[in-house]
Design goal:
This protein is mainly beta. Helices cover about 5% and strands about 40% of the residues. The chain is globular and about 35 Å long.
């Protein structure tokens, strides 16, 4: 499994990919938020297309069916666009802010010969 860098503080997010078929799990810690969405190159920058669900600990979750590639995104927390504080990379955007970058890599799987050797 690959994970983006975790950060501590008020907000924390992670992105991980088990495999292309399982997708990517995004999380964002915001216990006092009423609504959290994510928008990016994977959904046409439309926050209404991808909402996150809040767990009992105040962490918001979304599972995205992403394939191998590079994606830019931002979280929308109670209507405010925010960079992902846990992203390992970001790039400037045309609005004066920064877009977080998520790179999904294909998980290496053992060959049949390697599997038989186990």
């Amino acid at each position: 499994m690959s994970k983006n860098q975790k950060t501590s503080g008020m907000s924390r997010s992670t992105a991980s990919a088990e495999s292309e078929n399982e997708g990517v799990e995004l999380t964002f810690s915001a216990p006092n938020a009423r609504a959290v969405f994510v928008a990016g190159t994977f959904n046409g920058w439309d926050p209404k297309r991808t909402s996150l669900r809040k767990d009992s600990g105040g962490v918001w979750h979304a599972s995205l069916p992403l394939t191998t590639g590079r994606y830019e995104y931002r979280f929308i927390v109670d209507g405010q666009w925010q960079e992902d504080p846990g992203a390992g990379d970001s790039v400037p955007n045309p609005h004066g802010g920064r877009n977080s970058v998520l790179t999904v890599r294909q998980t290496a799987r053992p060959s049949m010969a390697e599997a038989k050797a186990w």
